[in-house]
Amino acid sequence: MDVTEAIRQRRAYRAFIPSEITDDVIDSLAEAARLSPSALNMQPWRFVFVTDRSVIHQLVTTLPSYNEWARNASMFIAVCSSEDMDAIVHEDQDVRKYVEHPSQFGESPDRPMCLFDLGIASGFIMLQATALGLVAHPIGGYMESGVKKILGVPDKLMVCALLIVGTHTTDPAAIAALPEDLRKDESKRPARLAIDRFVFRDRYGG
Q1: 204 in a domain, yes or no?
Q2: Is 205 part of any domain?
């Protein structure tokens, strides 16, 4: 599958059937993240791949009711980062520097890059999952403190997202088990903005 087809096929499905997540699959997803770009090559990402069913069941307890569909997934990936891994872009500098104490540069506005870099790496994982015939559905609805406790994530790291990974099914029973307001998204991609709503030429709003 080429990258254009992976982009077209990627969907945040919620109806899953059990599937095996092999070490080869995990290695393939991890390699996709490893090759993604980051500012100053800081690679400010840490991922926890969870396939142990008992741990997944624990993680489900950190989810609100609208994300309970994730209990049928075959893997959770905790997406983690921290600003102390970051490349900070300083507006008053001609170069980008990694510093432990950005405040030493005074009042200049700083732009942490770690979340942007983490999003790219997560996107690479999602596309690779699609190419492997899997769904990697990103969610932000979870109790972070609970996830960190269950997975032993250090306090200094943020759990910025969870990727819910599994094999999609069109089985009517599986779709019917979803909350009613989520079922329609299984058969039809949610509406996307028209390109002219978010792409401008030469000047914002132009």
Answers
A1: no
A2: no
Q: What's the pTM value of the predicted model, to 2 decimals?
A: 0.88
The CATH number that applies at residue 105 is 3.40.109.10
Question: Are the C-beta atoms of residues 131 and 29 closer than 8 Å to each other?
Answer: no
Name the residue range of residue 149's domain: 3-198
Could you tell me the mean pLDDT of each successive run of 10 residues in the chain, 206 residues long? 92 94 98 95 95 98 95 97 78 50 52 90 98 98 98 96 97 92 90 94 90
Q: Give pLDDT tens digits for 173-194.
A: 999 999 888 998 998 899 999 9
Q: From CA 154, how far away is CA 148, in angstroms rounded? A: 7
In this structure, is residue 19 part of a structural domain?
yes
Compute the distance between CA of residue 180 and CA of residue 192 in angstroms, rounded to an integer.
Answer: 21
| CA-wise closest residue to 182 among 16, 8, 10, 2 | 16
Q: How many domains does the structure of the chain reveal?
A: 1
| Cβ 60 vs Cβ 75: under 8 Å | no
Query: Does residue 167 belong to any structural domain of this protein?
Result: yes
What's the CA gap between 95 and 104, in Å, rounded? 15
